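Support reply, case 0932

Customer input (verbatim):
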Amino acid sequence: MAKCKLPFANCFLCAAQIRMAIIGVISDTHGLLRPEAVAALRGSDFIVHAGDVGRPEILEGLGAIAPVTVVRGNVDRGGWAQAIPKTEVLEAGGACIYVVHILAELDLKPEAAGMNVVVYGHSHTPKQEMKNGVLFFNPGSAGPRRFKLPVTVGRLTVRGGSVRGEIIVLE
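Our regenerated output:
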């Protein structure tokens, strides 16, 4: 079972409390919370928003579904966004998850820090790949359609420290 090697305060779903977790992952909403995204995220134990929220009401809507961890994206400006951190860490089901909006701003070596997953956004392109034993997971964009890319959210299923990612295309 993984144990985060860095001291983070926001381990909301610690392994000692829950052995399995469904984490809904959303990013780049840009002020739009689609009903299809809400439906896809229902049933999550926890929601991660990987930045570019757009408006505080988006977080309120997500918070009605499950507890939310959020990072500030490059378009999140104004007083409401200043309290949102640029990076966040949570532990769920025995896995450590690092969240950052722009992958190029990753400020640690996730494998050395004991991370199992890096969640990021910004590119609007859904993607998941393993690098050095770490799952890099971008749920794509659930906001306004751009560049003919699909509108998507993601789901992480964490069980006993192992993580499975899924990209969900919204219709």
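We compared this against your earlier run and they match. Two observations from our side: Residues 7-16 have pLDDT under 50 and may be disordered. DSSP finds three helices and ten strands in the chain. Please reopen the case if you see a mismatch on your end.
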